[in-house]
Design brief:
Blueprint (H helix, E strand, L loop, with lengths): L7 E7 L14 H13 L3 E6 L2 H13 L7 E5 L7 H4 L2 E4 L5 E4 L18 H9 L2 E3 L2 E2 L2 E2 L8 E2 L4 E5 H4 L12 H12 L3 E5 L16 E5 L2 E5 L7 H9 L3 E5 L6 E2 L2 E2 L8 E3 L2 E6 L5 H11 L4 E6 L15 E4 L4
Parallel strand pairs: 1-2, 2-3, 5-6, 10-11, 13-14, 18-19
Antiparallel strand pairs: 1-20, 4-5, 7-8, 9-10, 12-13, 15-16, 17-18
Helix pairs in contact: 1-2
Length: about 325
């Protein structure tokens, strides 16, 4: 599995339509998506899954207003339950000959929501459209459940995940498998040498421990970790025990709440695109520090903040809504 900073052919998105994800505050969300589409289209293709022609027209219009490169916009009519394609679109891998492969992991609504059946069919749709290979990982006689937001890789054999997500009996993904069996599946299908297990994810995360709100590789040997106190953070200690990594603390914003609900606001949910890094911001005093930290770590990319104060009500932000397609030889 290539690292996110490696060259992309494009980025996949799902046009937002499940209004219950943003209760009482859906109206601004399409505008946020239009802005992000425009940003991404500067340097790569943007593939957007839509429910109807009316959504394609709306998405085109909103992206155009934000200055999108329209030649890079590519729309598909594909039924979905939600728009969080980090977890529902295929996780792409590249074989030794440079061929693209769509790994089709089972998606079960984060072991929480009942409406996931359409989302589970997205990888097959995408693989058919791309005419690329598709692999369906299985273990113990069942399809293996995995979401893209639960892992992060350095493209050189290391993977980050959390025990809270992949091992906990709460919202259990693969309860019939133990740690060693899970690692075996990940190694086989993602080309890994080692899995680094962190403990818990951030508060407010309804996925129960996705690592993409917590810790991310920024190069093969550097990990940023969202933390309020690096010296006392057990996840920081886990990274130190892994060895061979430069560990860079990333601040957390102050608590973000809406109607009393704590939301998973984290600067670690950034997305590394071609020539740029898009970073969620929250109108918070720590926005600047987070952008400065990531700018130092990505000196050859434009690091841009995207206001996600509305988007995060859907319990995800920029990394959750995107899925990269690596540039493959064939």
């Amino acid at each position: 599995m290539p690292a996110e900073w490696e060259a992309h052919e494009g980025t996949w998105l799902g046009w937002p339509h499940e209004k219950s994800d943003w209760p009482g505050k859906f109206a601004p969300i399409p505008y946020v998506y239009g802005k992000i589409m425009a940003r991404l289209s500067r340097h790569e293709a943007v593939h957007v899954l839509c429910q109807a022609e009316s959504e394609i027209k709306l998405a085109t219009r909103l992206a155009r207003r934000e200055g999108a490169v329209e030649a890079n916009l590519d729309f598909h009519l594909c039924p979905t339950d939600r728009s969080w394609v980090r977890d529902t679109a295929p996780i792409f891998t590249v074989d030794d000959a440079g061929g693209l492969c769509a790994t089709d992991w089972h998606f079960n609504g984060w072991a929480k929501y009942p409406n996931w059946q359409r989302d589970d069919k997205v990888p097959a749709y995408v693989a058919k459209k791309l005419k690329c290979a598709r692999v369906t990982p299985k273990a113990g006689g069942k399809r293996f459940v995995l979401e893209g937001g639960s892992i992060d890789v350095n493209g050189a054999g290391l993977l980050l995940t959390t025990e809270e997500c992949l091992l906990s009996p709460i919202q259990a993904r693969n309860p019939h498998l133990n740690r060693e069996q899970i690692e075996e599946v990940l190694r086989e299908h993602l080309g890994l040498e080692r899995v680094i297990w962190l403990l818990n994810g951030i508060e407010g995360d309804d996925t129960h421990g996705h690592v993409d709100d917590l810790a991310r590789f920024t190069n093969r040997t550097t990990v940023v970790i969202a933390t309020r106190n690096a010296k006392k953070d057990p996840n920081v200690q886990r990274l130190k025990e892994a060895g061979g990594l430069e560990i860079v603390p990333l601040p957390m914003p102050g608590e973000v709440r809406y109607d009393g609900q704590l939301l998973p606001a984290s600067y670690a949910n950034f997305y590394i695109a071609n020539q740029q890094v898009l970073v969620p911001t929250f109108n918070d005093a720590n926005d600047r520090a987070a952008l400065q930290t990531l700018s130092r770590l990505f000196p050859d990319r434009e690091v841009a903040g995207i206001d996600c104060t509305d988007l995060v009500l859907g319990l995800g932000t920029l990394h959750c809504m995107t899925q990269q397609q690596p540039a493959a030889a064939r």
